[in-house]
C-alpha cells in the first residue's frame, strides 16, 4: 500500500509518495491574474486553520505593518448593486462615507453566508482582484500614500503585496475616505 502525504509551505505543496517527492508551486487565481498582467508582487503565507482570522492577527503573523495590510469588504447598496471596499485591517468601515463615495443613499455589509455566492471567495480569503464579477471598488485614501499594499491572494493563508497603484488600476478602483474617525 502506498503512503501519500501532502505538505504545504513556502508557496509550494509537496506530495510525498513512498520515497518520491513531487513539488508543486501553489498559485491562486489572483497570482495568475497578476502574472498575466505582468505585475510585480510578492506572496506571503501565514499559519492558519480552516477558519479565517482577523486582519491584525494576519499582519502580526506575517510580521508586517498593519498600515499596509488591507481587508476586502463587500456591501450592497439600496439599488441592489454590490460594492467592494478595501481598508487597513485595523480600521472599521464608515458605511455612510462608503455610500457617499459610490453615489448610494446607503450601503450595508452583505451577510457572511453570501460572500462565496457573490464573490467566489470564502470569508477570510476575499481579494479585491479576481472576483466572479468586477464590482465598483473603493480603497481607503491611505492606499495612495503607502509604498506597498498587502491583500488576500484569494485563499486563507495567502497574501500578496504589490504597488497600490497597480492594484487600484487592475480593479478600476478609486480612493476615498471610507473609515470611521
From TrEMBL:
It is an enzyme of class 4 (lyase). Residues 57-170 form the YbaK/aminoacyl-tRNA synthetase-associated domain. One of its GO terms (biological process) is translation. Keywords: Lyase, Protein biosynthesis. This is Cys-tRNA(Pro)/Cys-tRNA(Cys) deacylase. It comes from the Bacteria. Belongs to the prolyl-tRNA editing family. YbaK/EbsC subfamily. One of its GO terms (molecular function) is aminoacyl-tRNA deacylase activity. The keyword 4Fe-4S does not apply. InterPro entries: Prolyl-tRNA_editing_YbaK/EbsC (IPR004369), YbaK/aa-tRNA-synt-asso_dom_sf (IPR036754), YbaK/aa-tRNA-synth-assoc-dom (IPR007214). PANTHER family: CYS-TRNA(PRO)_CYS-TRNA(CYS) DEACYLASE YBAK, CYTOPLASMIC PROTEIN. Its EC number is 4.2.-.-.
Amino acid at each position: 500500500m502506498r503512503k501519500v502525504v501532502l505538505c504545504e509551505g513556502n508557496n509550494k505543496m509537496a506530495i510525498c509518495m513512498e520515497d518520491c517527492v513531487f513539488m508543486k508551486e501553489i498559485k491562486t487565481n489572483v497570482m495568475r491574474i497578476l502574472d498575466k498582467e505582468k505585475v510585480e508582487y510578492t506572496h506571503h503565507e501565514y499559519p492558519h486553520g480552516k477558519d479565517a482570522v482577523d486582519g491584525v492577527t494576519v499582519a502580526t503573523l506575517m510580521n508586517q505593518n498593519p498600515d499596509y495590510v488591507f481587508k476586502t469588504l463587500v456591501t450592497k447598496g439600496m439599488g441592489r448593486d454590490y460594492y467592494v471596499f478595501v481598508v487597513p485591517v485595523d480600521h472599521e468601515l464608515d458605511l455612510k462615507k462608503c455610500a457617499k463615495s459610490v453615489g448610494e443613499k446607503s450601503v450595508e455589509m452583505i451577510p457572511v453566508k453570501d460572500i462565496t455566492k457573490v464573490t467566489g471567495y470564502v470569508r477570510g480569503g476575499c481579494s479585491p482582484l479576481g472576483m466572479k464579477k468586477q464590482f465598483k471598488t473603493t480603497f481607503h485614501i491611505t492606499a495612495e500614500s503607502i509604498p506597498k499594499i498587502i491583500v488576500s491572494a484569494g485563499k486563507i493563508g495567502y497574501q500578496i503585496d504589490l504597488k497600490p497603484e497597480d492594484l487600484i488600476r487592475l480593479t478600476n478602483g478609486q480612493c476615498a475616505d471610507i473609515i470611521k474617525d
